[in-house]
Amino acid sequence: MAEVFNKKKSLGQNFLTSDKIPIRIAEACGADKTCGVIEIGPGMGILTKQLALRVAKVVAIEIDDELIPILAERFADADNVKVINEDVLKCDISAIIKEEFSGLDVAVCANLPYYITTPIIMALLEGNYGFKSITIMIQKEVAERLCAKAGSPTYGAVTAAVNYYASVKKQFVVGAANFSPKPKVDSAVITITPYEDKPVKPQNEGLFFKVLKAAFATRRKTLVNSLSTAFSTISKGDIQRIVSACHSPTVRGEELSVAELAKISDEINKLIYTTEERQ
């Protein structure tokens, strides 16, 4: 089937050609007969097949309507596979979980297109759907970024944001030769495990993300300067006092962990709250 299907560059379609890789991804997912799996972008169904052998039910969400009849034919006799022709960023995930996975733990498994990796990951985490795990194959460089520690060259805003919601584990690397068409870079499989109870709890989540965004806006700037730009109504002296109380006054945003960013966010929140009370 893969030979007669015209892959679409606009959808970032790179299909796996190795039977071994889907087996490893399905095993890394860790889901079993007590679980249901939402698969994003099943393509030709090579991973779908392996998931269906292991879990109670697979709901595969495919945006490309030309693939739907191919998938329907391939899984016509599989009573635990359902294919939905939708954009995962627009469909009602909560409704799918409620209607399709009653009584089951739910995991996500996917070979994500490189161009839309971060929006999908953040949508899955921000939705607070209670996923058991999210096992995805993404560009190797992005995988390394998501697994990076504070202070490393690859640590960035998306790293901190994902680590606020979940822990991240790198599983294995998948070479470009395992895909058709062959991409220019290698991929890697990671598992993101959402926290049932977040270890870091900022007083004001919206403000925390504003601090996070500002901290990584300009990597060469100190955190004091970055925050002074983002919070123009707060004096630079107050910003410097807050940062100095939590860390070195010359620290840069990329050196701080999620917990340290939350501590600074809480101090800014207190300052804003106190200032408003006085007015």
Summary of the model, kept short:
This protein is of the alpha/beta class.
Number of helices: 11
> Do you know the CATH architecture of the largest domain?
3-Layer(aba) Sandwich
Q: End-to-end span in angstroms?
A: 69 Å
Number of strands: 9
Low-pLDDT ranges: 1-5, 7-12
CATH topology of the largest domain: Rossmann fold
CATH homologous superfamily title of the largest domain: Vaccinia Virus protein VP39
N-to-C SSE string, H for helix and E for strand = EHEHEHEHEHEHHEEEHHHH
Please state the CA-atom Rg, rounded to the nearest Å: 21 Å
Order of adjacent strands in the largest pleated sheet: 4-3-2-5-6-9-7
Q: Percent helix among the residues?
A: 25-40%
Oligomeric state, counting identical vs distinct chains:
single chain
Q: Give the class from helix and strand content and strand pairing.
A: alpha/beta
Dominant shape:
elongated
- What is the CATH domain class of the largest domain? Alpha Beta
Number of domains in the coordinates? 2
Q: How would you state the average pLDDT, rounded?
A: 92
Main sheet? 7 strands, mixed
Strand percent estimate: 15-25%
Structural summary, described in words:
- The protein has helices at residues 20-29, 46-54, 68-74, 93-100, 117-126, 140-146, 157-165, 205-215, 223-230, 236-246, 258-278, and strands at 15-16, 35-40, 57-61, 81-84, 105-111, 134-139, 166-174, 179-180, 187-194.
- The longest helix has 21 residues, at 258-278.
- By secondary structure, it is an alpha/beta fold.
- It folds into 2 domains: 9-194, Vaccinia Virus protein VP39 (Rossmann fold, 3-Layer(aba) Sandwich), CATH 3.40.50.150; 205-278, Orthogonal Bundle (Helicase, Ruva Protein, domain 3).
- Helix 8 crosses helix 11 (258-278) and helix 9 crosses helix 10.
- The protein has 11 helices and 9 strands.
- The chain is elongated, with a radius of gyration of 21 Å.
- The strands form 2 sheets. It has a 7-stranded mixed β-sheet with strand order 4-3-2-5-6-9-7, sandwiched between helices.
- Helix content is 40%, strand content 18%.
